[in-house]
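Session log. Operator J.P. requested a structure for one protein chain; no other inputs attached. Running the standard single-chain path with token output.
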Amino acid sequence: MQWATLAFLNTSLVATLDEWHQTFLPSRTGTFRDVILDSSAGLVAQMAVFALIRMSSRVQYSSSESSESRYSEPKVHENDIGRTLSSLFPLTPFE
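Structure written below.
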């Protein structure tokens, strides 16, 4: 959960700086309401990623054939997160 907290705080910081920057532009206005909106969207995105990771680990968990693993909590590793995200976004510019 530390990565989610860091991502949310960074999203809020960028939203705040963006709105502050907009106060200097004559055709734009920076409002606190937009900071809240942007931060809320970041929080919803984090919740969606967390839900996808949980669903992915449960699918892997339910498809395992080991009887011992049925009664233990599935563990989510960084590789699982990478596989989940790569299945959502199959093409990356760095490949």
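Operator note: The mean pLDDT is 77.
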